[in-house]
Design goal:
Elements: E1 6-10, H1 13-24, E2 28-31, E3 35-38, E4 42-46, H2 47-54, E5 67-70, H3 74-84, E6 89-96, E7 102-107, E8 113-117
Parallel strand pairs: 1-4, 5-8
Antiparallel strand pairs: 2-3, 3-4, 6-7, 7-8
């Protein structure tokens, strides 16, 4: 068996692609009509298909898992996030842990939890 990546459920793949391209530099590798493969093994699937296949409803803004990224210039990242996506919902604004790592947590436009931290 081989781990292939992470699939997240989104309302609209094109909107999600724009967000992940703007904020993290992901690029589209393959578009299969409501299912996209991006660079770095991130997959997008539109909620319509996910709910049809699984017979379950999407639960946005949950906190059981998160996408985790590291960014050395986190202040610049947060500034770009706030400029491009001022409506973004934060779980916590930029903070510093006792061990010195800076982190910010927020939901993407579809309610998927994201954490960005400075390298440890």
């Amino acid at each position: 068996m081989k781990y292939k990546g992470t699939l997240i459920v989104v309302k609209d793949c094109n909107c999600a692609l724009k967000f992940y391209r703007d904020m993290f530099g992901f690029q589209l590798l393959q578009d299969n009509d409501g299912n996209m493969e991006l660079t770095d093994n991130l997959y997008l699937q539109e909620s319509e298909y996910w709910e049809q296949f699984t017979k379950r409803s999407v639960i946005p803004n949950s906190n059981q898992s998160e996408l985790y990224f590291e960014e050395p210039n986190i202040e610049q990242f947060v500034e770009r996030l706030e400029t491009l996506y001022p409506e973004i919902e934060y779980v916590n604004h930029l903070m510093t842990y006792s061990w010195g790592q800076k982190v910010v947590r927020f939901y993407d436009l579809d309610g998927n939890l994201i954490e960005v931290g400075t390298p440890v």
